[in-house]
Amino acid sequence: MKIKEFAILSLFIALTAVATMIVRIPIPQTTGYMNLGDTMVLLSGTFFGPIPGFIAGGVGSALADLIGGYPQWALWTLVIKGIEATLVGWLVILMRLKKKQPSILVALCYIFAVAWMVLGYFIAETIMYDQKAALAELPMNLLQAGGSVLLASLLLPVFNRIIKDVRSSPDSD
Length: 173
Fold this sequence. Notes:
With 173 residues, this protein is mainly alpha-helical. The chain has a single domain (3-165), classed as Orthogonal Bundle (Arp2/3 complex 21 kDa subunit ARPC3). The chain contains 6 helices and 2 strands. Strand 1 (25-27) and strand 2 form a beta hairpin. The N and C termini lie close together (10 Å). The relative contact order is 0.16.
């Protein structure tokens, strides 16, 4: 990985953590919270592919849990959000999707990935608490998922332009 690619990936880790922490709506039943971080998780998978997407989406989200006072969720979040970004990365590659503009296929990839996120947290909450608590959090996770699909789709052309400009600028490595 070139220095420039590593720097962009590092920025995405930070952006994911910030997006996760900037708006947090607590969910008392499971001590979790609703956030905007999945937007960056989806975009990480889109622009970096499966493995770097896992790193940006999973590590950035887990860091937000650790820094934000939710350490009990950090490992779960690393795995769930990392797989979410990985799914997007693989689907974008397998379907040879264009990253310039939102499309129905991109949205479907995002929906599939956030469906995993909702299922992953349902399983984690059932293990950590019980099925009743997991069911209580389900509507908030679905709302977070839908909002993230919409926001990531809207931000796709903006991030495409930024990343394209950064990747195409001359560098010394």
